[in-house]
């Protein structure tokens, strides 16, 4: 193994939903490792916001308006990225939503919307980029899973169902396309400081204390904590890692929780 195996020099990465948050951090890490960056978001103003952030970080990313649940938009965006960059070596299915609603109060429409973005979309985008990866003889797909790929909790039935399914989609893509030197793995972030978890981190919110007690590291994760694991799974250093979900959770899944003092 050579240290250059961790490099992404010459690679092209598409990170979905990466105007900010976890996706932006992962795209930044890929840039630092030498990759060229494509990202999308659902609205032009968000893409513009993302482009400004990337420029500020010295990253010459290209942004595309694309709703990842829309197969036609995904196909068109895939073709645009390949036309602009020549190829796609790495796909990160990062775009996602959550609706925190007790199941008995959640409409089937809301449930379906979460499944559509968090599970159907990774299928749609992976299906769009796999043919090119097969043709070029290599590829990396990284699905952003969750603690809820393994655990349930109140109010997140749709999200947990989607992220549990995403873990199994990860394993199935690995099974079906590993023979083409394509590796599909997941990253399972713990509780990370992003806009998505902002409602849970308001000062004094009981959930904040709960998560700190459930995390051996006794802190919320930062998007920076995900950068190294993402580069590893996107690089040649992980070419024999396939169908694995790498949990970056500060130890939550290993820990019963802080003992009462
Ligand atoms: P976030 O701050 O809410 O960002 C999600 C991104 O996805 C936003 O840019 C959002 O755009 C975009 N998006 C949503 N629906 C889309 C669609 N249909 N088409 C294209 N883009 C879409 O979330 P985050 O915290 O960075 O999380 C990113 C991923 O990590 C998600 O899959 C999430 O489930 C997962 N995750 C998060 C945590 C955490 O603690 N934060 C932990 C584990 C896993 P808009 O702004 O337009 O909605
Ligand atoms: C929640 C949180 C979590 C995180 C993440 C944990 O409401 O429980 O939003 O779901 O987003 O998925 O890994």
Structure characterization notes:
The protein contains 7 helices and 7 strands. The chain has 261 residues and is α/β, with parallel strands linked by helices. The chain has a single domain (8-194, 221-251), classed as Rossmann fold. Strands 3-2-1-4-5-6-7 form a 7-stranded parallel beta sheet, sandwiched between helices. The radius of gyration is 18 Å and the shape is globular. Bound molecules: NADP nicotinamide-adenine-dinucleotide phosphate (NAP) and D-gluconic acid (GCO). Residues 17, 19-23, 40-43, 46, 67-69, 94-97, 117, 144, 146, 189, 191-192, 194-197 line the site of NADP nicotinamide-adenine-dinucleotide phosphate (NAP).
Relevant terms:
globular, single chain, Rossmann fold, 7 helices, binds D-gluconic acid, 261 residues
* Strand segment tally: 7
CATH class: Alpha Beta
Global geometry:
globular
Average of per-residue pLDDT values = 97
The number of distinct helices, counting runs of at least 4 residues, comes to 7
CATH T-level topology? Rossmann fold
Q: Considering the protein shown, what is the CATH homologous superfamily?
A: NAD(P)-binding Rossmann-like Domain
- Give the N-to-C terminal Cα separation: 47 Å
Q: In percent, how much strand structure appears in the residues?
A: 5-15%
Q: What characterizes the major β-sheet?
A: 7 strands, parallel
Q: What would CATH call the architecture?
A: 3-Layer(aba) Sandwich
Compressed to H and E, one letter per element, the order equals EHEHEHEHEHEHHE
Pick out the low-confidence regions.
Answer: none
Lateral arrangement of strands in the main beta sheet? 3-2-1-4-5-6-7
Pairing-aware structural class of the strands and helices? alpha/beta
Number of domains: 1
Bound molecules: NADP nicotinamide-adenine-dinucleotide phosphate, D-gluconic acid
Using only C-alpha atoms, the radius of gyration works out to 18 Å
Percent of residues in helices: 40-55%
């Amino acid at each position: 193994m050579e240290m250059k195996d961790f490099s992404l020099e010459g690679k092209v990465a598409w990170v979905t939903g990466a105007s900010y948050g976890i996706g932006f951090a992962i795209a930044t890490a890929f840039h630092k490792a030498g990759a060229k960056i494509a990202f999308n978001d659902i609205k032009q103003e968000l893409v513009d916001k993302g482009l400004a952030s990337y420029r500020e970080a010295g990253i010459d990313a290209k942004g595309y308006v694309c709703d990842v649940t829309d197969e036609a938009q995904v196909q068109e965006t895939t073709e645009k990225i390949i036309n602009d960059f020549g190829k796609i070596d790495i796909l990160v299915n990062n775009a996602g939503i959550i609706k925190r609603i007790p199941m008995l109060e959640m409409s089937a429409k809301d449930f379906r919307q979460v499944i559509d973005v968090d599970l159907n979309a990774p299928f749609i985008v992976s299906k769009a980029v796999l043919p090119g990866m097969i043709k070029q003889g290599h590829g990396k797909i990284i699905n952003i899973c969750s603690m809820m790929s393994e655990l349930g909790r109140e109010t997140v039935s749709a999200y947990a169902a989607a992220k549990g399914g995403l873990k199994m989609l990860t394993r199935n893509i690995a099974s079906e396309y590993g023979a083409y030197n394509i590796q599909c793995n997941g990253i399972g972030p713990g509780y990370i400081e992003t806009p998505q978890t902002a409602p849970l981190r308001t000062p004094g919110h009981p959930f904040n204390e709960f998560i700190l007690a459930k995390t051996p590291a006794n802190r919320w994760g930062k998007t920076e904590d995900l950068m190294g694991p993402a580069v590893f799974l996107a690089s040649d250093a992980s070419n024999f890692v396939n169908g694995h979900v790498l949990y970056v959770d500060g130890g939550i899944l290993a820990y019963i929780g802080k003992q009462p003092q």
